[in-house]
Amino acid sequence: MTDLFGKLVVRSYAPKRRAWMLGGGAALGLTLAYGIFELGRYDAGFRVVDSVRGALSASARIRELTAEVERQREQLAAADVARRVDREGYKQVERNLGDMQSQIARLNQDLSFYRGLVQPDSTVHVKVQQMQIVPDAAAGAFRLKFVLMQTGKPESTVAGSLILSVDGLLRGKPLSLAYPQLAPSHLSTLVYSFRYFEDYDELIKLPAGFEPIRIGTEIHAGRDANHGFRQAFVWKAQGMSMETDAPGVGAAGSGAPGVGAAGSGAPGVGAAGSGAPAAGAAGGRKGGTDVQTETE
Q1: Got the DSSP string for 58-123?
Q2: Which residues pair with residue 286 across a beta bridge?
Q3: CB distance 174 to 209 below 8 Å
Q4: pLDDT-derived band at 7, boundaries 50, 70, 90
Q5: What is the sign, positive or negative, of the torsion defined by CA atoms of 165, 166, 167, 171?
Q6: Which of 32, 88, 163, 166 could form a disulfide with 218 if both were Cys (CB 3.0 to 4.6 A apart)?
Q7: Does domain 123-294 have CATH number 2.60.40.150?
Q8: Cα separation, 111 vs 246, whole angstroms
Q9: What's the rounded Cα separation, in Å, for the pair 285 and 288?
Q10: HSE, side-chain direction, 13 A CA sphere, residue 97
Q11: What is the largest CA-CA distance in the chain?
């Protein structure tokens, strides 16, 4: 029994102290490890203070950019509203301009009509009253539908000749094409003979690449090739062409005898419905030379 108590060892047991010691050792180890880590970053040139300053500066820059984005969005919204207002204003202006153009077109038609009633300072009392250009089935082919009528009071039958020409651009250069260059029949002039008015329907074919701008007409009374009445019409392939200022030089004439409009009773006579022979004279200027043509 005495030997048993002599081998007995009494040890103190404190679990909390042991836990504290283990926790303190672990914390000390972590602190040492972090210190070593920071020492390595310091040796590598990294500064915690500089990092914090950079983070603060970046945050301030982000706030500035966010505010700038908001301002830009507000400006964009204001610009979009202004654009919509301008668009509505442009639409209104376009509508008003279209109405004004329609009014001008109607006034031009009225003016053309009244010009046909009164034609001062001219020995030719015939004029083209209406000009309509209708595209034909073939490429570059058009039909010129127009009306010749007497101006003033028609007291007797009038007779004479009519020269047609088309002005435009060919490969960017101005070009004037006479009626013989455009008509499939290559006739130089059209002759007329009527009392009140006469309708014409003439087929022409434009060369490839030619851009027409206006149609010129030159009307002569009887055999008088020195005096003529010139008119010009804006080329408009749909609808009625408006009369414009006539060029100062007439279309070139040629030596071929003129014939009347479609449906005339005999060669060398006037428009459809007239049976009496008509004496026409086609005159014009080309290259500064007067050209006269008479029909028997």
Answers
A1: HHHHHHHHHHHHHHHHHHHHHHHHHHHHHHHHHHHHHHHHHHHHHHHHHHHHHHHHHHHH---S-S
A2: 289
A3: no
A4: low
A5: negative
A6: 163
A7: yes
A8: 15
A9: 6
A10: 6
A11: 175
Question: Contact at 8 Å (CB) between 190 and 162?
Answer: yes
pTM to 2 decimal places: 0.42
Buried b or exposed e, range 170-208, using 16+ CB within 10 angstroms: eeeeebbbbbbbbbeeebbbbbbbbeebbbbebebebee
CA dihedral over 58, 63, 68, 73, signed as positive or negative? positive
Give the pLDDT score at 125.
79
Q: At 253, which amino acid appears? A: G
CB 257 within 8 A of CB 295: yes
For residue range 166-219, what is the model confidence (pLDDT) as tens digits?
999 998 899 999 988 888 877 778 888 888 888 999 899 999 999 999 999 998
Q: What is the pLDDT of residues 126-174, one digit of tens each?
A: 888 888 899 988 888 999 999 988 877 777 888 888 889 999 999 889 9
CA atoms of 274 and 187, how far apart (whole Å): 20
Q: Show the CA angle centred on residue 217, arms to residues 214 and 223, nearest 5°.
A: 165
Please answer whether residues 228 and 220 qualify as being in contact, where contact means their C-beta atoms are separated by less than 8 angstroms. yes
Q: Which residues lie across from 128 on neighbouring strands?
A: 148
Q: The tokens of 9 are what?
A: 């060892």
Tell me which residue has tokens 């108590």. Answer: 5
Residue found by looking up tokens 């590598």 in the block: 44
Token digits for 163? 């020269």
H or E stretch at 22? helix 15-43
| Nearest CA-CA partner of 158 in 73, 239, 241, 219 | 219
- How far apart (Å, rounded) are the C-alpha atoms in residues 164 and 229? 12
What is the token pair recorded at 199?
Answer: 């309708």
Dihedral (CA of 68, 74, 76, 82) sign: negative
| pLDDT recorded at residue 8 | 62
Half-sphere exposure (Cβ direction) of 199: Cα atoms closer than 13 Å: 5
Task: Count CA atoms closer than 13 A to 45's CA, side-chain side.
Answer: 0
